[in-house]
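Supplementary Text 2. Reproducibility record for the structural model of the 399-residue chain.

All settings were left at their defaults, and a single model was retained for analysis rather than an ensemble. We include the record here because the model underlies the residue-level annotations in Supplementary Table 4.
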Amino acid sequence: MNPESTAAATPFTTPWGAFHLTRHPEDPRERLRAWDAADDYLLRHLAGEADSAAGAATELAGRRIAVLGDRWGALTTALAPYEPVQITDSHLGRLATRANLARAGAAVDEARLLTTRDTPPERIDVLLVRVPKSLALLEDQLHRLAPAVHPGTVVIGAGMVTEIHTSTLELFEKILGPTRTSLAVRKARLILCTPDPALAPGPSPWPHRYALPTDIGPAAGRTVVNHAGTFCAERLDIGTRFFLSHLPTPAPGDRVVDLGCGNGVVGTAAALAGPGAELVFVDESYQAVASAEETFRAGLGPDAPAEFLTADALDPAVFAPGSVDLVLNNPPFHSHQATTDATAWRMFTGARRALRPGGELWVVGNRHLGYHVKLRRLFGNCRLVAGNPKFVVLRAVKR
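Retained model, structure tokens:
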């Protein structure tokens, strides 16, 4: 059993009450928990209950609280009486927060559910940070929030010990001020930072840009734009590179979806290969969708038509059955620290629903993941387009 699924149905007991929390979407096969020991440690520390070096309770009433990177809304839900502002890069995390707030009987104030692309608060008195998997995303977001922090701001980060490294602490120290860590409790650790107004960390180094290799087909030499947190921000990853060498050519008028688009390289290449195709870029990351749009504009010009959507895979509320001709997909197989095929399965089932009869799903993945088995079960067919010792490109047709 995945460690994150342990006691998935157990209420999250906090100093502010017990809450029944869920991820979005709920997967009955996985039952992954929507909170962990780091969330628990941070909240107990705030309430003065944690056994740490600075365990006195933090006064929250009347203070402007920002919660950065709250994965499924556990922190935002527990602290709802204090009206915190949540800042997240995850559309799924945002949907989970809405549901968890509603389930707890708290008001769901959309103005307080911000994304990483929204203008941050002007002033923050308490900044709570769930350390993200991406160090780049943490760097970019700390830069964005630094102007709102003042000498009296309480800054507390939290993560599992495997998520907090020397480089993590160095970012807090460089951008906000002196930083130390707590003792580890249940494999979780806190980051305690004291803002220094004299620091001048400079602007965020993000986004990054690079030129694609010259041997990858229609997108050769084009510029890729990567906002912080986007997969493989420094260079073209080898799986996408293999996919680019074997992409189908869309017909004029085809509606083509780059599903889980990341920086948009795959969809941009498809648009260059098939002029006249209608491209739609979809990802659950706000940073990724922003990257995809800038990559597409850099490759095809500022006025080239395309759609850019932050969504839960091929959401049926957005993609009607039979409305898509071609889906291109490089699915992830991690959800934070959990290794799971739930996201890939949701992408595949959504693609089948959205595709017209005769429409195609093209997938690249690690050979060992066995996606061909899932695609055959779902579509009734699956053909190997190309393969090497590490990756396969697969094609499934909706009959």
